[in-house]
Specification:
Elements (H helix, E strand, L loop, with lengths): L1 E5 L7 E2 L2 E2 L1 H17 L4 E5 L10 H17 L3 E4 L6 H4 L3 H5 L3 E4 L9 E5 L2 E8 L4 H8 L6 H17 L6 E7 L1 E2 L18 E2 L9 E5 L5 E4 L2 E3 L16 E7 L5 E7 L6 E6 L1 H6 L10 E6 L8 H8 L3 E6 L12 H5 L4 H12 L7 H24 L1
Parallel strand pairs: 1-4, 4-5, 5-6, 8-9, 9-12, 10-11, 12-14, 17-18, 18-19
Antiparallel strand pairs: 1-15, 2-3, 7-8, 13-14, 15-16
Subunit structure: Heterodimer of SbcC and SbcD.
Protein name: Nuclease SbcCD subunit D
Organism: Streptomyces antimicrobicus
Length: 388
């Protein structure tokens, strides 16, 4: 059986101030064409269909057109909700839409109810695990603790139990939306940290033939059987070096996997340039970036006059301009953003507590209180998004 694995469409998202809906529509065109050209038997979408819980109308219209076009092909589509989606909104009409071959899996309680497709070698069970917010689904899965690993592990236990009850030789595919240990994030994913630990081990997916993952925006192979497709478009300059693509996966008679990447359309390349303003404007090697969306970091010791106007005179599609003077004291504290870069909310809060107390470190009890507070806020935010 041959299927396309994609994820993280983020319909309705902009890139800085640029509307990407036309580029997202071009991706949908490309997806439909690829389904036909590669003789695909199923399409998998591993979450974050939309960029936010209440997407703009034009994004909903694009999604509606995509569903109709996929249904017209007669090729089944399996789709899960991600952490950016409102699971309840995305799942409206799922039963009715399923009759057209578009299978929406947004309810955690249904994670062990697969979409079963067949080829000449027998059945393939596709299990859709929507994004599982630990604080909200802990009771559903009777998880031992409020953590991603605990709830995803419990969901996979249900999957393995259902698979064990099926005829021998039934092959299996899981769609999940999570952060797997060893994967490389970018700047454009929303933090899903809970309890200080966002990552889950790849071993949680043991027992299935393929895990089609979403959430991280870079295409990655964690193991032969556990892969991220990445987003079809770049959503931050941290993705400037990404090759955007989908996985074309072939599942053999005994569950063997072959996979190749199918590139997706690039509306405009990304470039990160750095240096003194006059050097950037004069460097002939940078001519290749004159049509790109540009993030420019100026290192002039003194901020130049009219820097954006001068940068855009050569690089008209510059979207981000930053300053990092080259003579800044390396031992100094740097900017607030630089000091916080790469630090979790928990770490920032612990540092703040230590600072206002006049030094020292946060003890275990204080750390637990802060962690519980962040978990409650995230869970409340998720509840509000789902009920808005």
């Amino acid at each position: 059986m041959k299927f396309l694995h994609t994820s993280d469409w983020h319909l309705g998202r902009a890139f800085h101030r640029v509307d990407l809906l036309d580029a997202q529509a071009a991706f949908v065109d490309h997806l439909v064409t690829a389904v036909t050209e590669h003789g695909v038997d199923a399409v998998l979408v591993a979450g974050d269909v939309y960029d936010r819980a209440v997407p703009p109308l034009r994004a909903v219209e694009l999604f509606d057109r995509a569903l109709h076009r996929l249904a017209d092909l007669g090729v089944p589509t399996v789709m899960i909700s991600g952490n950016h989606d409102s699971a309840r909104r995305l799942g409206v009409g799922a039963g009715l839409i399923g009759r057209a071959g578009i299978h929406l899996r947004t309810d955690p309680a249904g994670c062990a109810d697969p979409v079963v497709l067949a080829d000449e070698h027998g059945d393939v069970a596709f299990y859709g695990l929507p994004y599982l917010e630990p604080a909200l689904v802990k009771d559903e899965f009777a998880a031992a603790e409020v953590s991603h690993e605990a709830v995803l592990g419990a969901a996979m236990d249900r999957v393995r139990a259902d698979l064990a009850a099926r005829p021998a030789g039934t092959r299996s595919v899981v769609l999940a939306h999570a952060f797997v240990t060893g994967a490389e994030p970018s700047d454009s994913e929303r933090d899903i940290t809970v309890g200080g630990v966002a990552a889950v081990p790849a071993a949680v997916f043991d027992g299935v033939d393929y895990a089609a993952l979403g959430h991280l925006h870079g295409c990655q192979t964690i193991t032969e059987r556990v892969r991220y497709s990445g987003s079809p478009l770049a959503y931050s300059f941290s993705e400037a070096d990404h090759r955007k693509s989908m996985w074309l996966v072939e599942l053999g008679a005994a569950g063997e996997i072959t996979a190749e990447r199918v590139d997706t359309p690039v509306p405009r390349p990304l470039a990160r340039i750095r240096g003194r303003l006059d050097d950037l404007l004069a460097d002939p090697a940078l001519a290749v970036h004159e049509r790109a969306w540009v993030e420019a970091t100026l290192t002039d010791p003194v901020r130049p006059q009219d820097p954006m106007a001068r940068v855009t005179a050569r690089f008209p599609h510059t979207l981000s301009l930053a300053f990092d003077p080259e003579d800044r004291d390396e031992a100094g504290p740097g900017s607030y953003a630089q000091r916080l870069k790469g630090r979790t909310d928990q770490e920032i809060a612990e540092d703040f507590v230590a600072h206002v107390r006049g030094g020292g470190t946060v003890d275990a009890a204080e750390r637990a209180v802060l962690r519980a507070a962040f978990d409650d806020v995230r869970a409340d935010d998720t509840r509000q998004e789902r009920t808005r």
